[in-house]
């Protein structure tokens, strides 16, 4: 099958789990997405990348499948993660509320819409709470009907940003009151969200927070579509950005090297997102005013264009564990 035909019906899930220090465990979760219980390879499904951050004790598994296959792939991975990760023993430097903390579905293909991904997200939530007794979930994005509240808003409502969130006080949309073993899972659908983290060479968290405030979307003069946290990370401070895709033509801002905002379409509607170089340049400028240098920028996974292209390649070659084939490091 030609790459273009494969790509028309693709959906990506950047599955966030609260474990990174046990690499074999995380890879077991990833394999559950692409192999069934008998060891057979799932049709039309691949894992492109596994990102482990041991300091945060958090991993992001990039699963891509056709819209017809994504539900079972993601459900199986979630079920495996819930069986292996116990939140009562969790310790890490990143905010989290669940063994499976986040299940976002993003349409990649022209024949897949946000409504399709929302339907699958809600089915994943129902399936997870049925298969793993005691699990619970809240919805965000297009899966949160009819409000369509964004992930940041829903996380704030659930207490995700608190240092020690009380999951038992949260009111999930599906399942019972959260149990300490599994915690609470966010499940939703939206246009692609890229994760871009810029590390500044300081331990001054207050400085990091001031930079985060300056560049986030809600601040006048901030970067459209960018949601930001400043977090201690490996002896420095990381400006951790969720880069949301926005409907319509790109704004006039360009990246550090003058490149335009990348664009893609969903159902004929144009979307764009801030380039990583623009985020890096803004953080570098703000940190530099205080005499602080940047140490580097990391993408957690891929841009939307990269994700679709690599998935088409992996699926056309029948490679389920594509993360093993990937030679260049994506963080």
UniProtKB/TrEMBL annotation:
- Name a GO molecular-function annotation: folic acid binding
| Domain spans labelled Formiminotransferase N-terminal subdomain | 9-191
Matching InterPro entries, A to Z?
A: Formiminotransferase_C_sf, Formiminotransferase_N, Formiminotransferase_N_sf, FormiminoTrfase_cat_dom_sf, FTCD
Q: What superkingdom heads the lineage?
A: Eukaryota
Q: Which Gene3D superfamilies match?
A: Formiminotransferase, C-terminal subdomain, Formiminotransferase, N-terminal subdomain
Protein name according to UniProt: Formiminotransferase cyclodeaminase N-terminal like 1
Question: Where does this protein come from, organism-wise?
Answer: Hucho hucho (huchen)
């Amino acid at each position: 099958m030609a790459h273009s035909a494969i790509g028309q019906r693709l959906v990506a899930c950047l599955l966030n789990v609260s474990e990174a220090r046990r690499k074999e465990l995380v890879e077991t979760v990833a394999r559950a997405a692409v192999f069934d219980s008998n060891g057979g390879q799932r049709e039309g499904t691949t894992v492109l990348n596994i990102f482990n951050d041991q300091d945060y004790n958090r991993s992001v598994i990039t699963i891509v499948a056709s819209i017809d296959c994504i539900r079972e792939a993601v459900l199986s991975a979630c079920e495996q993660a819930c069986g292996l990760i116990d939140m009562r023993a969790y310790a890490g430097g990143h905010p989290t509320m669940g063994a499976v903390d986040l299940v976002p579905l993003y349409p990649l293909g022209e024949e897949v819409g946000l409504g399709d991904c929302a339907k699958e997200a809600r089915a994943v939530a129902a399936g997870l709470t049925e298969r793993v007794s005691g699990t619970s979930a809240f919805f965000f994005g297009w899966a949160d009907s009819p409000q369509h509240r964004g992930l940041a808003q829903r996380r704030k409502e659930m207490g995700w940003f608190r240092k020690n969130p009380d999951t038992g006080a949260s009111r999930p949309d599906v399942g019972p009151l959260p149990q300490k073993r599994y915690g609470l899972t966010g499940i939703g659908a939206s246009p692609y969200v890229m994760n871009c983290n810029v590390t500044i060479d300081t331990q001054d968290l207050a400085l990091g927070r001031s930079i985060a405030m300056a560049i986030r979307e809600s601040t006048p003069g901030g970067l459209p579509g960018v949601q930001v946290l400043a977090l201690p990370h490996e002896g420095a401070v990381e400006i951790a950005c969720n880069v949301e895709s926005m409907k319509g033509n790109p704004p006039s801002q360009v990246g550090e090297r003058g490149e335009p905002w990348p664009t893609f379409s969903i159902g004929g509607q144009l979307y764009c997102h801030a380039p990583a170089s623009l985020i890096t340049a803004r953080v570098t400028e703000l940190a530099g005013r205080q005499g602080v240098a940047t140490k580097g920028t990391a993408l957690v996974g891929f841009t939307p264009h990269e994700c679709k292209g690599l998935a088409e390649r992996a699926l056309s070659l029948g490679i389920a564990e594509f993360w093993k084939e990937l030679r260049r490091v994506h963080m």
